[in-house]
Amino acid sequence: MNDKLNIVLIGNGMYSTGQGTEGYGTIVPAINEFNRKDKKVNLLHVVGSRVESTKKAKQKTDNLQDITGSYLPILLSPTKKDNSEEYKRAILEIEKPACAIIAVPDHLHYEITKFCLENNLHCLVVKPFTVNLQEAQELTSIANERGLLSWVEFHKRWDVANIALRDSYLSGEIGKLLYCIVEYSQRKSIPTQHFKGWSSKTNILNYLGVHYIDLMRFITQATPKKVSATGQNYYLEEMGIETYDAIECSIEWQSINNETFIQTIFTNWVDPDTSTSASDQKIKLIGTKGRFESDQKNRGLSLNVDNKSPKSLNPYFCSSFKNPDNNLEWSGYGIDSIVDFLSSASSLISGNTSLEDMPKSKPSFDESIYSTSVLQAAKQSLDSNSCWIEI
């Protein structure tokens, strides 16, 4: 069987192609790297909803191929008129077997992912999976019944800093876990500029904090039991955006040994745009024998040059480096998570592996139900004066 992949990428914005930034995003560079050596992509169809956005995406993808010296067979749409359901045509017309990567606003995940699954596409969904537990369970059931590879793009599972954190916990060297503290924030230009069209339809815990909910599941295999959340809305409300500036969420987890610990996540998306990094993020695990602290913003690299703002660099997420041929190649855990999905889908389609052989550490839909259950409980808590909500 031909193991070349047909891929539908639904969403052509910042994370897919780098629109609105100086870069090229993460998803298309990752697909390009997957295809670079073995020419494993038969067709990549990048689907948006607006013609103007398609034009910008084409410019990005054309430039990407120029600077990487590689060829990626790409089709982009729509090209004639705006169409919010263009993705349906692309899914119905793509040659099967195929896979889909869904990179659209949070509130559209369920509808679009369901359509992909019902048309037998292996799926990778950017986080969050969904924010509704019933929807998450329904999508998981469809994927499992049809034998489809179904992951959420929780790329922090591939970060070596987090793998080291997991190893430290599993080895027992920090003892029994007592509590975890997470600080995670982004610049205010994210909700007010880049995602202005839909930031009022989500919140910062759903969009960003969910990464560290899934990461706690990855590290400990614990089960969330109850949730309390508090939010503040000052700045964004003044900007006409009805969503929280910040949310503080506490989660009580139960370990596989029936021991409980608390994770508290402090998250906001109103950091100054002069921040030296797009994301400011830290995690601490405190146990009975010690603590593990990971500053995931300050990785030890910084850049400060004339006529530019200082930068804290994270070369481990999604970075480009020149190869001996003077072409750019992309690497990092953001790239790895997408390439891993594509490689797994290719192996399934070619018959070289089965779903049962997939490592349990991957962010499958089954795994992602845990983070969705926390998000739903957090919303209920926010709507109920921050009271504790049982899961």
Structure in words:
With about 400 residues, the chain is of the alpha/beta class. About 35% of the residues lie in helices and about 25% in strands. The chain is built from twelve helices and 17 strands. The chain has helices spanning about 15, 25-40, 50-70, 85-95, 110-120, 135-145, 160-170, 190-195, 205-220, 235-240, 335-350, 365-380; strands spanning about 5-10, 40-45, 75, 100, 120-125, 150, 175-185, 225-230, 245-255, 260-270, 280-285, 290-295, 300-305, 310-315, 320, 330, 390. The strands form four sheets. Strands 12-11-7-10-9-8-17 form a seven-stranded mixed beta sheet. A six-stranded parallel beta sheet has the order 3-2-1-4-5-6, with helices on both faces. Helix 3 (about 50-70) links the parallel strand 2 (about 40-45) and strand 3 (about 75). Helix 6 packs antiparallel against helix 12 (about 365-380) and helix 7 (about 160-170) packs across helix 9 (about 205-220). The longest helix is centred in the first third of the chain and has 18 residues, at about 50-70. The mean pLDDT is about 95.
